[in-house]
User: Fold this.
Amino acid sequence: MLIIPCPHCGPRPENEFRYSGEAHIARPADPEATSDAEWADFLYMRSNPKGRHAERWRHIHGCGRFFNCIRDTVSDRIERSYPAGTRP
Amino acid sequence: MSFRTPTGGRIDRNRVLNFTFDGRAYTGHHGDTLASALLAKGVHLMGRSFKYHRPRGVLAAGIEEPNALVHVDRGGGRDAPNLRATQVELYEGLVARSQNRSPSLAFDLGAVAGLLSRFLPAGFYYKTFMWPASFWKRLYEPAIRAAAGLGRAPTAADPDRYLHRYAHCDVLIVGAGPAGLTAARAAAATGQRVMICDEQPELGGSLRDEPGAVIGGRASAAWLAAATTDLASRGNVTVLTRATAFGWYPDNLIGIAERVTDHIAMPDPNLPRERLWQVRASEVIIATGAHERPLVFPDNDRPGIMLAGAARAFLHRHGVLPGRRAVVATACDSAYAAALDLHAAGVTIAAIADLRANPTGAAIEAARAAGIPVRTGCAITGSTGRLRVTGALLGSDWVACDTILMSAGWTPSLHLQSQSRGKLRFDAATASFLPMAQPGQRSVGACAGEFDLAAILGVPVSGAISPNGSHTGLVPGASAKRAFVDFQNDVTARDLALATQEGFRSIEHVKRYTTTGMATDQGKTSNINALAIVAGQLGNTIPEVGLTTFRPPYSPVTFGTIAGASRGDLFDPERRAPMHDWAAAHGAVFEDVGTWKRAWYFPRGRETMHDAVARECRAVRNAVGIFDASTLGKIEVVGPDAAEFLNRLYTNSWKKLGVGRCRYGLMLSEAGFVWDDGVVGRIAEDRFHVTTTTGGAARVLNHMEDYLQTEFPELLVWLTSTTEQWAVIAVQGPDARALIAPLVAGIDLSPEAFPHMSIREGTICGVPTRLFRVSFTGELGFEINVPAEYGPAVWEALMAQEAPTRSPTPYGTEAMHVLRAEKGFVIVGQETDGTVTPDDLGLSGMIARSKPDFVGKRSLRRPDMVVANRKQLVGLLTEKPDDLLEEGAQIVEDPRQPIPMRMIGHVTSSYPSATLGRSIAMALVEGGRARMGSTLYVPMPGQDITVRVVEPIFYDRTGARLDG
Amino acid sequence: MVDRRSPLAGLAGAAPSIPAARLVALPPCARVVLRTAAVLDLPIVQDINRAVVAGGVASLRLGPDEWLILAPDAGPIFAAASGHAAAVVDVSHRQVAIEIAGPRAAEVLNGHCALDLGAAFPPGMCTRTLLGKAEIVLWRTGADEFHLEVGRSFAPYVWQCLEEGRREHA
Assistant:
């Protein structure tokens, strides 16, 4: 069980959190203006890197906030976390 | 004949304990293990080996024991197989059995496998059981299953209790030998939160086997007693004994299995048998010591052959001698300490055979001075004896003996370090891999290659012999045949050589092919010898071959410990709706819906389920029914932007919904598929009462929060789960209004004032209610929301109503399903499976085309979503009205086509309908709406059911009944 | 007015007396969820994951814009929020309160809860967390006293988990 740093509550055990996929994939401001390919890319394509990965978590059994963090997918070490809507 | 010394050891000689082994009665003492008590009676033969069923005695004195695996039976389902006799503490009445033998340990029919051993080499299974394929099911698999496995799994439910405990500390010390105790005392002195655990019943580790050592001027026993008292007296230190740290998990989480009551004859039933500790430590200090290595020589596995350090442990901990006449074969000084101690205790040391050509030092001189014959440069190359060793082959001499003590040196215990992905370095001088510190973790003492007591304790020590010298792999000049490396999995030096000859190069592959190191002992005694043999075969060095990765658990952990209290009623929360107790008292049969228990139907007398559901449905259609709908998810959406938020989350439009009105809402995933549905009522301009499916409540709230927090953070609106705030009583049927009217105050129930799809606030039975006029049955209906703890009393008041209408009929989820299917109402998760669009369900009218955007809107235009032949919701009527389709059954156009048939859809719902006097079904069928009136087929075993495609609505197509 | 029925009535009535970890089903009270970024004229706690009790009203700040308020009466909170960009929702029946108190209380909680209940969780601290498979609000009201807010359908499960854990201290 990892220790995950919630930007609001501090370090907490992993079971209080829910993983929510890759971070910084913004919903297009005007979806109707996107092509089918662009929309499919937004819906389905993810980077899946080996190493540093910006990802979303929700402190669902805590403060309830979604936030982002940088986790190394090889070592499982979390470098830092930061509130949703901000950049590292 | 007793092998117990007249004095000494850490046992309580005044407490005699009775126990049985294989049905034979013995006695031992408090402080004995099963192994030491048997050895005290001259019993070495304790098990049979896994593959060849060779007679085996005890090899080690502790957790690393590979041979003496026993089954302990406390009766009443309290069965524990595969326990190491060296760890089983004796208690009054202990009943233990040997394993892997038939009919008895001394005469085992399975031993025929040993005679065939030249035909059972490494990879035997892979080579032999390959063909013909048909033999697998009938011959190979049953035969292998019968022969495979160690011990016998218990069949009865385990009556013992198990608990978990999370704990946190600044410093966790794993192992309470001299290095661990020293580290713990240093950490404790700083005032930090300290935990120390050890798998033994008492602290001290190897120090208990050094009674002659003098530490800083004090006898070792006195030093140990002082250290133990010191730690126990400190409020900041937690000491765990009988507690095995079995695994390292990320962020310094250590799993520890504590055996709480296994050593007690009559444990307090309030105590758990075992406790799983999950300890989060800022720093982990690994002080797990080292395991002694056996020498690999032919027939090195006979009963009576044991590790030299084990013999010393049995002597000093339990006052037990391994035999009368011992040969000591070694490459390490520590075996001299064993020889000297046993010599002093009266054992004849027939010879010390030292592999080293010219060993020097105090240990060797002391042995010579004691008159023990020391042969240097001398390899042991064989043994004799069947159920007990009778002789050792030293060079060309056979030396008679009843005991062979061996030592090839010591292997640091690296399991936790390896599990944590910690780095290792190879120390050629000691032929050992040694751990390197990493942040939050370090190793001390023997597991870090430091064996010198004075260096470990930081004070002068005299009277102790350091274990200088080592050997790895097969002894020089010996045959590899029957030279066992991994005792538990019966892997010999020859098997390892064969694996490399057959082309295996990676140690990980050799390990899997030969199974070396893969037994329950995790290679504690065999690892380095195996590496050395493989390295020798490949012409590489040990570090070039590399160490295999250790994985948790370090030693076996019971399923009970892993499960903890999570079994039976506590396996999962069993959620009960507010009116559950009433339903149970009135004979309801319940079904599981997610984690909820819901009343399924209410049989009366000897009614079948079918009868009960038919009666419940008729009551709703003809009079009035009452239903506990409390498990529906509820979310209160409040704030100035509440309507705008719902507009973005649902397909339909919310801004013009008047206060006091309700609307059925459809929600999509961003991919355009139906995600959830439910009725939403507007309580105030800025307040909506949203309902979701029972199973979707948490998922929908998370989905809404996700969009609100990350995509639409500018909206001033907040979401609060109110699922559990409200008890919901659905009252449905033509008499519904008449039933509730006498109890409701503050609400005009007339159809004009309170039309279908409205919500009003008032009171019922004097408690506040949000009263919905909605219908999931097609009948006149109300859903009474009251604060949950009032639910049962309001329900009972409704049940007690006798005028102007008869009391309502309680109905369950099955009748609810039938009633809604008759009306063609879909259930998300039954008609939908995550790939269904609104149009597939015939619900395109729910999509507000005028809205510029909502979640999922853009996806509805994707090419795949608008193809002509998508599966669409239709009704199915079987040709024979009594035929009932199976939900999930596949649908085809032509049942005579060759197999595999082309399947064009599947049945999503199917029920017998009492209202219609026939079966009804819904289905998703390719291009379904264009097939109205056509005939399709549902192939089932033994028959093809003919069905007609119809509109998915079977009753009251005009909706006239909604007004009662 | 009709009677109220607690989901813990049966379990609490049958609970053994274990002074090392006393288990009590607390009486009903008004519960309100307050969500706002505005500053209201209410004496409520400002630090996240902290609780204060003032004038018989307990406020627990569970998130950046989220409070759980336990009070004799919910009316004043609705009144104070009126006219502000805020959400106030009555959840009086959504959950029930359990108190566990005594020298072994923290240990029993740690049988099912992974939080560090040492100095990192002082009296006055509160948070949402998990107890076994149930979400709870955990509020340390004293050195050896904890107040748990539990969803009503999870309350029997939580109660029985704690009962199972404190049995060894009987």
